[in-house]
Amino acid sequence: MQAAQGKVTLVGAGPGDPELLTIKALKAIEAADVLLIDDLVNPEILALAPSTARVIQVGKRGGCESTPQEFIERLMIAEARAGQHVVRLKGGDPYLFGRGGEERAQLRAHGIAVEVVPGISSGLAAPATLGVPLTHRAWSQGAVFVTGHGKDAASEPNWAALAQSGLTLVVYMGVARCEAIQAGLLAGGAKPDTPVAVVQSATRAHQRQLLTTLGQLPAALRDSGLGSPSIIVIGDVVRCADDWQDLAELAPPPALEQPAVGHAASPGIRFFVTSRDAALTPASQGSDPVRGLTPTVAFRVAG
Question: Where exactly are the transmembrane stretches of this chain (predicted)?
Fold first, then answer.
């Protein structure tokens, strides 16, 4: 006797912190027969799945070698037709740069029942960890979520137009293309002193963040060592960040013979790099904990 057809649930696993899973996402994970997991899903979340569930890694990360999308879709269809409850677990939200729309369309085209469980996107969570709202009556009446890594040249965002919108920009997968993003925004009229925040591994225990300006973004990113996965937030709302006032008041840094990190700092670069949930100490031993900071790393994790 042929088994009853199963179903697929596209689940947003949130930005990383397991406590930010929705109740509906948790219930879907607990009821899964098969889980197809993206690279950005926190391994701690897998502990919530039944011990009998099969876990299949189908790594998807911008700019890296990934499991072919067609293979993932065929696998979901085959498992559902075999009577399994398939949970496609994605970092963030399935419908925000997660290809959830493509997967749902393919599943429906093959007669597979599919449900979508939204998740908290890192584009919302990352700025929140710094105290940054995406909208603010004084500075921004809206926000734009945009990828820095288009499918091809034709799908490249119109950075000049975005610069003229006056809206907060939340850029996914933008670290590797920060120079092109900066050039496009400046060409569109954005001011070099526009505040910028970069958050790597948002809400995870190893989260790191950077506060700088648009004019200094590429050099600050290079000197900070931050990489992917990161969210870049561009706009005046970044002034709400907990450490922004300290950065704004930071005096021009003195010349250093030996930078605080293992490479030469770019002259004149001023920014903060901090870590989440870590003991923070001034990077210099001066009596003033703000004006004595080095130009490369304003705080470092106490060892």
Answer: none
